[in-house]
Amino acid sequence: MHTVSTTTGKRYLTAALGLFTLVLALVFSPLAAPAPASAAGDGPCDIYAAGGTPCVAAYSPARALYASYNGPLYQVKRASDGATRNIGVLSAGGYADATQQDTFCSGTTCVIPIVYDQSPNHNDLTPAPAGEQGAANAPADAGALPITVAGTKAYGLYLPPGVAYRRSSTVTIGTARGASPESMYMVASGTNVNSACCSDFGNVETDTVDTGAGHMDTLNLSTLGANGATGHGPWVQADLEEGVFQGKTAVWTPNQGNASKFVTAVLKNNGVDTFALKGGNAQSGGLSTWYNGALPDGTDRFGSTWKPMKLEGSIGLGAGGDNSNRGTQSFFEGVMTSGYATDATENAVQTNIVAQNYQGVSTGGGPGRTIVGPGGKCVDVAGDDVGGNLATVQLWDCKTLAADQHWVGSALREGTLNTLGRCLDVDGNVTTLGTGVELYDCNGAGGQQWIPQADGSIKNPASGLCLDAPNGNTANGTPLRIWTCNGAAAQKFTVATPILYPVAGAASKCVDVAGDDVNGNGGVVQLWTCQNVVTGAPGGRAEARDQQWTYNPADQSVRTIGRCLDIDGNSTVMGTGVELYDCNNVGGQHWVPQANGALLNPASGYCLDSPNGATANGTALRIWVCNGAPAQRFVLN
């Protein structure tokens, strides 16, 4: 039992980018080893070169990564006329000329068709093509992620699902091949992640297909495959193909995660038998070594091994090697090097990163859905994406990139809503009329259960009361409470359509396609144990791809592994089964999420249903009269 909160808070989101520091539960200092000799003005690539591991690729939309670099950082393309312009630095070794972008894109929008490599190899990145596990990717929205670096306005690279970049090894120069050693780091966001595959950066396959264990060596900052992990996610991980690893195994308990707003993630791999992972707050402190040891043992489903590596040398950013592009991330800078970097070099790079003073109003929104309440205000947590225990849950103006306005329903704790790693909770776990709500560690208590109702209210079953804005107040900072369910406007909450979710039909069961990630037409859609980590391969496979579904509100389609959730034969007959089929926009492929958790097919008027409430593995789903039963409630993550 925790005490009743007296926390009050007011969220300040202004045009001025304010100072924000998130203190981790454990603060680690840099190792005491001496740093390589370098000039005070050196950039990360100068530091790596001084340590004998020169950069072979270097990317940042925010700053130069060499002291002498004076070229373009990225290109913007204007929607109004298709014109392009390269955005460079204000001075050699300096920061991005964001004013040039703002002027060029004024009155319209811009995307980023090229991210330039600052190394002499010119390994420039362009939007990733279609692949085995995803359609062709779109370029990033150039204005989506405003930040400051060293007090200078810049932009990060916002990489939601379907936005990723790539360069094929057929034209890439200098990257590791085979069992050659390499090192890399990236600065990304610890508040904008999800559990989907794959928000990767690093060395990927030549073609956009999975060619087996050891054919990738990439950094991954996410909650992917983290069932049973310790600490507070996301976790700095290595996607080595056929597995995302926190250490030698998919979950490595010493890896405690990095949830700060800006995270430095580090990976190095000698290509033969050893790799290491490190993480740190990119705004303060040093690096923590989460793992330093052997590569994973065993073989994967292809009979391939991780020892030694079999690198192909392409470069990917924002998606997996097979173009699994359902992950989400915010990217600010990153490099790949030749050779296995020393700890001293990596500590010096972290010192350089911290000195840049990365700041931002928000870093991308995070996974989940906004919950829009009375007055068009969003359900929000007091403070700026801090999310500590007892923080007041309130109404505030909706902000697209506010991480603490994005809520996720948990497939493992049915009925909960969480953000920033904690759950929406009735203060003190009491059932008293008028009790306030807060954010608290997820513990499965009755005060953390929330069920959307057909009338738009959100009910707490333990108390029998509904989430409520006191007296219909809609001012910013209005703390929410539980109150008698009365259908008033003060209790109307609209859950926004999700971008991406695994769909859970019962505790620990997910909507799945018969077969092991086989994406042929006619595959039966069924319930199966949720497999964020598949145990069939030593170390665990990255995820069950056919349990990861995207929702496209434009055509109301629900998709996985390149095909759509479809009613067999496009039938409207009650009881007809559902399958996976080529997306063709017929009525049997339209699905509309309902407030009570159902998925309605408008053409038939029926809902997705598990026959007679069955939850056994292999239960084939169907369409049935919409009845609000648990068999039709699908928790959307």
Write the layout of secondary structure elements.
Blueprint: H1 44-50, E1 55-59, E2 72-78, E3 84-88, H2 98-104, E4 110-115, E5 126-127, E6 140-141, E7 146-149, E8 152-155, E9 157-159, E10 165-167, E11 182-188, E12 200-204, E13 217-222, E14 235-239, E15 244-245, E16 263-269, E17 274-281, E18 288-294, E19 314-317, E20 329-338, H3 343-355, E21 371-372, E22 378-381, E23 393-396, E24 408-409, E25 417-419, E26 422-426, E27 437-440, E28 451-452, E29 458-460, E30 465-468, E31 481-483, E32 494-495, E33 500-501, E34 503-506, E35 509-513, E36 523-529, E37 549-552, E38 557-560, E39 563-567, E40 578-581, E41 592-593, E42 599-601, E43 606-609, E44 622-624, E45 635-636
Antiparallel strand pairs: 1-20, 2-3, 2-4, 4-6, 5-10, 7-8, 9-20, 10-19, 11-16, 11-20, 12-13, 12-19, 13-14, 14-15, 16-17, 17-18, 21-32, 22-23, 24-25, 25-26, 26-27, 28-29, 29-30, 30-31, 33-37, 34-35, 34-45, 35-36, 36-40, 37-38, 38-39, 39-40, 41-42, 42-43, 43-44
